[in-house]
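Exercise: predict the fold of this chain.
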Amino acid sequence: MTRRTLFRDFDVVVTMDPAGREIPGGFVLVEGNRIVRVGEDPSGIRADETVSGRGSVLLPGFVNTHHHLYQSLFRCVPGAADSELFDWLVFLYKRWKGIDEEAARISSAVASSELLLSGATTTSDHCYLFPRGGGAILDADIEGAAMAGIRFHPCRGSMSLSEKDGGLPPDNVVQREDEILADCRRVIERYHDREPFAMVRIAVAPCSPFSVTPGLMRESLALADEYGVLLHTHLAETRDEEAYCLERFGRRPVDLMEDLGWLRDDVWFAHLVVLSDADIAKLGRAKVGVAHCPTSNMTLGSGIAPVMDMLGSGVRVGLAVDGSASNDSSNMVREVRQAMLLQRVRSGASALSARQALRMATIGGASVLRREEELGSLEPGKAADLIAFDLSDIAFAGAADPVAAIVHCAADRVSLSMVNGEWRVRGGQLLASDAEKWIARHNELASKLVRP
């Protein structure tokens, strides 16, 4: 018989449904891996387990739309921490060349666990680094995320332009384009799950306009069409990227993507910071998605993405922590707060509310990954991906609005997390029994890898 779990008596159940319902004292009933009822009065409902939420707020799990999980091995590296993007990349490529399967597996498990603790129940990972001799990096990445138990959208990334070809990466971290496309096919055929509530879905993701050729961008698009998977890349992150595209291609980044056929609704871009009004109009007409990465953009001095303008134009906007070498954490709820604050710096105190920021982190992110029918809100028929914040902590003392308090009062971690009907966090603690061992090994690997 399918197990039933009743979440009841929460101070507020924040549904993120189309009406934006918030239910004081509400309940959610889960059967197996899906939500079957949401409402005000749970009287008469029988369940195998009842979770009382007094003093807590219940929400749908956050969806992290862009990450580089391996970068949790490279936090606060001297020589990189105070650099802008191109210099930062050139410096770190010399360290990243040492990544292998074990490093990918352990960093994926650790970073995914950090995401779970901070409210993310689904994450993407843009895995574009495949050093020679490193082994099956993406396979290990998928294994690590499964160890943690997070819902996973790994992107088979690629770099084919090395320094000798006019790109930024050294030769030993790029691949031949035929090799890249063959492995994209392999990982899609092996791992991509098209079934409802899938725990793994693959996307095809050339790294950026300055690390692959236009030919590979077109071939990647054709391959994604063949298999019916999403497309992802970095775009319009910095002024340096804009200058590179103008010099090399005679076009600004968004115009280049338009020429390559990449402005479409099964594409999402990371960043989109350096945009003109014409760019935003094009992106909106195409209904593309964007992974907004406020902390990374601030850390690297890249600028402030025009999020409110993109939302107004029809761009699907989600939030993301980006890699831990430019964040330097994988804390999703902190990213929600940063998103709210940064738009207020750009456009005034009324620019983005706490609820709007939470919406981008939930149903907004689900829409970016084209899973809005399954994820991102607490509604009957959707996946049982739920999180809660305990407001009894001193950080929330005196807060009059419990929902806004999650963002304004700087929440740090969830009290509980359920992914696909399985418990991942209880009492603010990870349930993965090996987490301490992962962290210890992760730190050993990090200390070796930071040396060039």
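Check your answer against the key: The two ends are 55 Å apart (CA to CA).
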